[in-house]
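1st attempt posting a full record on here, be nice pls
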Amino acid sequence: MLGNSPPVGLADSKKLSAKRRALLDSQIRASCAWGVGIVEPEEIDRLNIFGATMRAMTLAVAQLAEALGEAPGEVLIDGNLTPEGRDEGWCWQARAIVGGDALEPAISAASIIAKQWRDRIMCEAAARHPHYGWERNMGYGTKEHMEALRLHGPTPLHRRSFAPVAQLTLL
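the predicted structure (as tokens):
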């Protein structure tokens, strides 16, 4: 939830430079209530990516509601579906907006916080698992990451349902 004056320059997190995202992340988290939902690899494997996304949204909004001290009036979701009826913990009114991260400041802010949070997790994981280049590729399936998987195998942070990992276990 953004206050009356959202930080200037909010946009789709994927269209911002890392430096700009970091600055906005700090401004957003200092000026509004927010929440982050984290779903671990084992749960993603159990739920699938879609189910895990719905779960993460539910966890994030629950954290936001706790920070606010009340339920949000309406939750704006980037995309075409909401967690309503898709995650048992979802209990808020929501509206899905396709391309919302480029249209709604609250969604832009949420996408920036989420991306920065994930990038920090990946940089911390890179220190424990240096072969995968996560501080550079943030866990995406780059050539470097795929080669490290082939040479070193998966870590506990890799989803077993991630196709390259699943294929390795078949060998």
